[in-house]
């Protein structure tokens, strides 16, 4: 479940502050505790379900529960120290500090490294992007670099191969997260439903368990398009109830069956376990690994909460509850060795018989909450991949008009559902599901460890010895679990590898094709001299209206524009080259959203507008976007006075871009008003804005008339030329907006290798033909859209 990012981050800042007033201090802690409460339902749903299947997966085949209790106590010792070292020490106290302006996750680490090492993860990156507030905040927070960090930065900047390796490493982690989005719902729901095995015979429950799990999964995915904002408030109570339930049962089992089970927390029991079981014990670590599934969510969901709130929730409630649950199971099993062979070592055997049905119901609800969190997280990470040019464009539906981060991607949703059902029906047991889930989880953690070691050196400018110590401590633990999971390749671990490979191929092919296409457009730009030689009318008739030419270029004139001018008998009075791009920061302030510039002399009425979004932002297009776009151009026209104190960015000699915010952020800027022409009334706007430039729709237009006007501040006064330019802009706005799109058909050029032809002509072309087109991104009306095709030999 995603919460409203802006509101949460504001509350997070309040929670981390140091107010002087006692009332403010109380309000601050109240906010932090509220965030900690909310994080229980969002972050810890997956982690809290792990007691359902850890012991069952560990004792599935490799080791057996004997009367000496060395196996069960050794497993408990491994679980305790794994939970202590990885989620608690690594994530809660170290990794959470490596946030990217409050955001977490694999892409946050990658973006952080790219900005510190001055790498360009996107081909459309500009020097102007470094003037964004989040860039500047990062530079102010960075301490002075060491000699080693400086050498490492220069090495990364020089060698393209290292930059590609860094990108592929981040993509591998991302693909494994997507794979986890398939495996977590399957194993969580199946393990919760497996409690039915204690109430019926083995012959009966194997025919009931899988259908019930499939029905729950189908219902879960079928309801995704409604969003979670209506029932999200129930998530935290469900997780709290579940954690209280398993911790209480754990305490009961400890005092009832083995009060001395706490002795197993000594690392000595791990040594005894490995000494007795040897290779089989090492192979069983793949089941123990499942106790930390969902730990990555603490970092990935950092943007919705504060660091302090996540730390409080885990250290004071989640961590103690899980430890008590695992100790309680071990205490029960230490006194029960001769169990019915039909039932394996599992969670439900340690639950008192009278409580099994209520616990089963709560477990299913908690499994659904944990699955919902990972599904929503998968939607979010696919959106981030799309923003960074590493995944084909998909349809993104906003399920809430109030909570900004809640999205739904139909194609991904149904793909995940089919894969979940295939795994549930195909495996039919937690052993192979656990092997698959464990490999996905530990791979993501290994990627995080590698990226964090670079963050320690490049971003925190700490000693290389500290980075080596970090890798040695946590990398050794994770490598041990990774090797144990990889051994189970034929027993289910092949699933995340196969899924990650498929998604990685899609991402690499799309990224490569997009990069080569952009490079072709840059190298084949139309010279500005050619445009100037056409004169103000561009050699054709200029008709009323605004023509929005969608382009990926941030400078220059796209080659496809020459096709427009050559093949069209007329063009619009106002021409805007529109570029909507993502930048390697999580969010862009609305005050810095637009970069506006003029192409050619003023009388040409040709502008460039670059709209910037962070990789965590969601471009929700509506009429306000079109209004903001026109207002940003109008503000740029107004500010072209000598007395205006604005922010100009000199990108190239031919263009000077100006930073302009959305119209609602400009208290002293131009505002636009649109009312029906029949409506004679209407307020002129705020009292301090008195100078009004008006334009009226021509009476011959058959469509519904609109009266459009600019409400302009009193000062500075507008020059006559700027006034005429504003009037032309308003005339064009009233006449309507047309969207001009260039469809590029990419083909490998002659003489290319067979591999390049396969990647471009087959792989990239297949993805391009099956992904969303730019008309969807801007919600363009079909009757106002003009498309022209062009073949790009790359």
TrEMBL record:
Q: Where is this region: Disordered?
A: 676-705
Molecular function (GO) terms listed? potassium ion transmembrane transporter activity
Which residue range or ranges hold the K+ potassium transporter integral membrane domain? 36-532
List the Pfam families. K_trans, K_trans_C
**Where is the K+ potassium transporter C-terminal domain positioned along the sequence?**
545-793
Q: Which UniProt keywords apply?
A: Ion transport, Membrane, Potassium, Potassium transport, Transmembrane, Transmembrane helix, Transport
Q: What is its main location?
A: membrane
Where in or outside the cell it occurs: the entry states: Cell membrane; Membrane
Residues that span the membrane, as ranges = 72-93, 165-187, 207-226, 233-255, 281-300, 312-332, 407-427, 439-458, 464-482, 494-513
Q: How does it sit in the membrane?
A: Multi-pass membrane protein
GO cellular-component term (any): plasma membrane
* PANTHER family reported in the protein's UniProt record: OSMOTIC STRESS POTASSIUM TRANSPORTER, POTASSIUM TRANSPORTER 6
Q: What NCBIfam families does the entry give?
A: kup
Please give the function described in this protein's UniProt entry. Answer: Potassium transporter.
Q: What family classification does the UniProt entry report for this protein?
A: Belongs to the HAK/KUP transporter (TC 2.A.72.3) family.
> In its UniProt entry, what is this protein called?
Potassium transporter
Tell me which species this is from: Trapa natans (Water chestnut)
């Amino acid at each position: 479940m995603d919460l409203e990012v802006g509101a949460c981050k504001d509350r997070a800042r309040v929670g981390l502050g140091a107010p002087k007033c006692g009332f403010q201090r109380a309000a601050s802690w109240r906010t932090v505790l509220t965030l900690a409460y909310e994080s229980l339902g969002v972050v810890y749903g997956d982690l809290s379900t792990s007691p359902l299947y850890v012991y069952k997966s560990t004792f599935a085949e490799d080791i057996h529960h004997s009367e000496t209790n060395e196996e069960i106590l050794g497993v408990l010792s491994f679980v305790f120290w794994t939970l202590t070292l990885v989620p608690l020490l690594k994530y809660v106290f170290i990794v959470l500090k490596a946030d990217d302006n409050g955001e977490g996750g694999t892409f946050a680490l990658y973006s952080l490294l790219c900005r510190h090492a001055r790498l360009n993860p996107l081909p459309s990156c500009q020097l102007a992007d470094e003037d964004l507030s989040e860039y500047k905040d990062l530079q102010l927070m960075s301490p002075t670099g060491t000699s080693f960090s400086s050498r490492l930065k220069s090495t990364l900047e020089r060698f393209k191969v290292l930059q590609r390796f860094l990108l592929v490493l981040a993509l591998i982690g991302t693909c494994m997260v997507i794979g986890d989005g398939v495996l977590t719902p399957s194993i969580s729901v199946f393990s919760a439903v497996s409690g039915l095995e204690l109430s019926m015979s083995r012959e009966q429950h194997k025919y009931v368990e899988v259908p019930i799990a499939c029905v729950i999964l189908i219902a879960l995915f079928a309801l995704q398009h409604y969003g979670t904002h209506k029932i999200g408030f129930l998530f935290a109570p469900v997780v709290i109830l579940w954690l209280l339930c398993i911790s209480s049962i754990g305490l009961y089992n400890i005092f009832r069956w083995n009060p001395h089970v706490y002795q197993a927390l000594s690392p000595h029991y791990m040594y005894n376990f490995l000494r007795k079981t040897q290779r089989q014990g090492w192979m069983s670590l793949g089941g123990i690994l499942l106790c930390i599934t969902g730990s990555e969510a603490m970092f990935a969901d950092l943007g919705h909460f504060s660091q302090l709130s996540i730390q409080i929730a885990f250290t004071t409630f989640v961590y103690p509850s899980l430890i008590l649950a695992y100790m309680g199971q071990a205490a029960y099993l230490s006194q029960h060795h001769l169990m019915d062979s039909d039932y394996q070592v599992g969670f439900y055997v340690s639950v008192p018989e009278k409580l099994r049905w209520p616990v089963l119901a709560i477990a299913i609800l908690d499994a659904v909450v944990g699955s919902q969190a990972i599904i929503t997280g998968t939607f979010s990470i696919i959106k981030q991949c799309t923003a960074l040019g590493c995944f084909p464009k998909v349809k993104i539906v906003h399920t809430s008009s109030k909570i900004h981060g809640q999205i739904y991607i139909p194609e991904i949703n149904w793909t995940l559902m089919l894969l979940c059902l295939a795994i549930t029906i195909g495996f039919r047991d937690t052993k192979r599901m656990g092997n698959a889930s464990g490999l996905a989880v530990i791979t993501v953690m290994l990627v995080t460890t590698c990226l964090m070691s670079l963050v320690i050196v490049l971003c925190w400018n700490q000693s290389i010895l500290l980075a080596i110590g970090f890798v040695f401590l946590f990398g050794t633990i994770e490598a041990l679990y990774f090797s144990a999971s990889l051994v189970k390749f034929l027993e289910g671990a092949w699933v995340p590898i196969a899924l990650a490979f498929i998604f990685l191929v899609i991402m690499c092919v799309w990224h490569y094709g997009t990069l080569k296409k952009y490079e072709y457009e840059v190298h084949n730009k139309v010279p500005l001299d050619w445009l100037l030689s056409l004169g103000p009318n561009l050699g054709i008739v200029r008709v009323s209206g605004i023509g929005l030419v969608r382009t990926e270029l941030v400078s220059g004139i796209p080659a496809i524009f020459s096709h427009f001018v050559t093949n069209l008998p007329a063009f619009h009075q106002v021409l805007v080259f529109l570029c909507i791009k993502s930048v390697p920061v999580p969010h862009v302030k609305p005050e810095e959203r637009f970069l506006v510039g003029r192409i050619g002399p003023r009388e040409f009425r040709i502008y460039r507008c670059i709209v910037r979004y962070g990789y965590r932002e969601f471009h929700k297009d509506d009429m306000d976007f079109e209004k903001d776009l026109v207002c940003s151009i109008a503000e740029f026209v107004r500010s072209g006075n000598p007395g205006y104190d604005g922010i100009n960015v000199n990108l190239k000699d031919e263009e000077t871009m100006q930073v302009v915010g959305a119209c609602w952020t400009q208290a002293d800027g131009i505002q636009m008003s649109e009312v029906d022409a029949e409506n004679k009334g209407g307020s002129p706007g705020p009292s301090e804005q008195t100078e009004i430039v008006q334009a009226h729709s021509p009476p011959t237009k058959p469509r519904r008339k609109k009266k459009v006007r600019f409400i302009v501040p009193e000062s500075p006064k507008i020059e006559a030329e700027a006034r005429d330019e504003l009037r032309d802009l308003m005339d064009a706005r009233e006449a309507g907006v047309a969207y001009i799109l260039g469809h590029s058909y990419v083909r490998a050029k002659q003489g290319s290798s067979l591999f390049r032809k396969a990647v471009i002509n087959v792989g990239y072309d297949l993805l391009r033909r099956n992904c969303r087109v730019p008309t969807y991104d801007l919600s363009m009306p079909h009757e106002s859209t003009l498309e022209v095709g062009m073949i790009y030999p790359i």
